[in-house]
Amino acid sequence: MAKITKEKKLQILKEATKENLIYTDTHFHSLEIEKKEIDIKNLLDQMEKMSFIALDIGINESDIESRYNLLQDYKNIYLSTAIGPWGVKDSAEKHDALIDTLEANIKNYPIKAIGEIGLDNYWKYGTKELQEDLFIKQIHLANKYNLPIIIHNREADEQIINIIKKISFKKNGIIHCFSSNLEFAKIALDKDFYISFAGPITYKNNEELREVLKYVPINKLLIETDSPYLSPTPFRGKTNTPLLIPLIYQEIASIKKIAIEDLCLNVKRNLLTLLDCS
Question: Where does residue 33 rank: exposed (0-12), middle (13-18), buried (19+ CB within 10 A)?
C-alpha cells in the first residue's frame, strides 16, 4: 500500500465523522482527559454521535463513582476497575484492604473488566515483590468474578510471563498498549490474551512493533488510544483523546493490509466478545 502522508492522515481525521464507520477504543481514561482541561462532556457527546464503543479504564480503587456518574448515560462506554502498580502499598495486608474495596466496586457498579493492573519497573513503584502481590491478588479477584483483566506492562516482560504462565484464567484479557517483542506476544496469545496497539504503532522508529502487529491474528487484535497519553503521529506530544483513534486504525489497516471497514468490525467484535456484551 502507498505510504500515508501527514496531509492524508489529517484528512482521514477530518473525514472520520463523515464515514459510516464505528470505531472502538479499548482503553481510555475519562478523568485523566478531563484533567487536561478537555471539555469531557462535549467529547463524550461527540463520541456518542459517532457511535463510538469504548472501555473507560480504572487506575485506583476510589475513581469508580466519579467515572460512573460521568459515563452512565453513554450506553456504549463500558467500565473497568482496578489499581495499577502506582497504587502499591508498603505491605500485603494493606493490599487486602484495597481488594475488598475493588470487590465492593464489582458488586455496586456495572464492571466489565479488572484493569489496568500489572507491573512497572520503569518508575519502580514500591518493591517488585509488592507490585507482584497487588497484581496477583487482582488476577484472583478477576477469576472469582469471571472478569477479563487488562495488563499494564512496562519493562517487566519476564515477570509477567512467569506469572501468567502459572495461572489458569477463567476469562482471558488484554495486554494493553503492547510494546514488547514477538516472543512475549506469542506467549500472551498462547494464553488466549488479546493484544492491543496504541499510538506508538504510528511512530517512525517502531518497526519491531509493526512486525509484531503483522503476526497478531485479527481475532486477537484490539486498538486503543490510552488517552490522554500517547497521541498518534502527527499529534505526538499533544493531549490525546479517543477522537484521534481513526489515525491509529488507518495505520493498522495499512500494515495488516485489511480494509478499514473490516478492521473496525473485527475490533468491535473482539472487545464486545471479551466483555460479554451483545
Answer: buried
- For residue 104, being part of any structural domain is answered with yes
Whether the link from the prior residue into 19 is cis, omega within 30° of 0, is no
Indicate whether 2 pLDDT > 60. no
The model's confidence at residue 8, banded by pLDDT at 50, 70 and 90, is confident
Give residue 146's domain range. Answer: 6-274
| 160-217: pLDDT as tens digits | 999 999 999 999 999 999 999 999 999 999 999 999 999 999 999 999 999 999 999 9
Contact 52, 99 (CB under 8 A): no
**Cβ(33)–Cβ(227) below 8 Å:** yes
Alpha helices by DSSP H, listed for the chain, are 6-15, 30-35, 40-49, 64-71, 92-108, 128-144, 157-166, 182-190, 207-215, 245-256, 260-274
Coil, strand, or helix at residue 11? helix
Residue 116: give its domain's CATH number. Answer: 3.20.20.140
Cis peptide bond upstream of 234, omega within 30: yes
How far from 176 is each of 197, 232, 259, CA to CA, in Å?
7, 16, 23
Q: Domain for residue 1, yes or no?
A: no
Query: d(Cα 251, Cα 236) in Å, to the nearest integer?
Result: 14
> Starting at the edge strand that comes first in sequence, how are the strands of the sheet with 53-56 ordered?
24-28, 53-56, 77-81, 111-120, 149-154, 173-175, 194-197, 221-223
CB 241 within 8 A of CB 37: no
